[in-house]
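Dear Dr. H.,

I hope your travels went smoothly. While you were away I took the liberty of generating a structure for the chain from your last submission, since the lab meeting agenda had it listed for discussion. I wanted you to have the full record in hand beforehand rather than looking at slides cold. The sequence, exactly as received, is reproduced here:
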Amino acid sequence: MRSVLQIETDRQAKYWLTISGFICAVAFLATVPFPRVDNHLVGSDGVRYYAITRSLVLDRDFDFANDFKLLGVTAALTPTGLPSNPYGIGTAILWIPFFLLAHLVSLLLNASGVAVPLNGVSYIYEASVCLGTIAYATTGFILAYDAARRTLQGPIPNTFWSVIGMWWATPAIYYLIAEPSMSHGLSIFTMAVFLFTWYPPSPNRSLWDWMKVGIATGLVGLVRWQDGLIVLVPLTELTWWLLRGRLGLPRAAGYLSVVCMTMLLVLSPQFLMWKAVYGALLTIPQGNDFFSWTSPHVLPALFSTRHGLVLWHPIFLLAGLGILLLWRKNRAIALVILYMCIGELLINAAASRWWADDAFGGRRFVGLIPLLVIPLTVLLTKTKREWATLALVTLIVWNGLSFAQYRLGFVSMSEPLTIRETTIDRLLVPLRLLQKILR
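The corresponding predicted structure, in token form, is as follows:
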């Protein structure tokens, strides 16, 4: 697949991926002046992630009462007497550098005579962490590109366009431009870090290499616990090398200890937060009825008009087909991707609210995106250039129309859509938008 941008080197590919991230940042900043009902740039689940960041930096505690008050959030009290906050701490921790930068800017503005809030709740602070999400996700996509190139040694243009497709034809683009205060952009980053750190599997890793794998594994779970399924990958690899006689029992046990200890160390902030807020180091903060393991909604999670992954974002079907082709080239990575896809599907389908409430398509599957870059690249390589180009352009445009339809309120954000809304009405979005502007 020959690139219209004439991308012939990895450096050129990474440059244009950086430009893609810059476009997302500009698009987000362009929306900042728009009137907002609550006067906040962070919204939905992002408000609670943001409350953790603010509390960690300015209050240095896990009592979110004052943070929620400033952000206009109400929350039930837990048995410890603190407001409930069931969201992962990883996103909040990764935002801290951007929050501190915003705080420094705010201090400098006040010192120069420009009065801006210093309480951590203003557009300066909130825009900064949102831009942080975009920066992390952009880094994640570049790492996913690197991992795919290292895994497949395939054509540079095909790998590049696979990344672009998984960026702009999936829920990722919505959660980088419209709602970057959610955790999904950080999930792209952490999963890409794991893939880049772990691959290729080898019995000859050093102790430091296994430590890095443990850190990357813990980081994945710290941001989105469901992605923590990835922990079985290094554990299975160690077992495999042991059974094959490539590692002796003492070394395998030592490496296993290193992976587990570093992973638990990275996860420890979450345990501490749960202990402070819920009174237990381990818990399901959403409640025991959050999952229904005996009756998962597998088919609706994939094909329902109520945020079904494949129906909303057909590019996932193409990536899934690519796994079959990848199986012939690299069975180890194909198994990892297949395992993660099935695992995440079962977890998301078992959730009591499997449609994820207000969601642009299958948002809970975003963590799979860095992995699926690899099989999509294989599929593009096996497809005629003209057909591959047409398919990617169509899927990106279709996703863009869906983005506008959803964001502008032309369809419900939480209820099932009609077949007409997912077909004819979506195609008519530009006309409806023009009519809205001319009124």
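Two observations you may find useful: Residues 10-280+293-438 form one domain. Residues 123-152 form the longest helix (30 residues).

With kind regards,
E. W.
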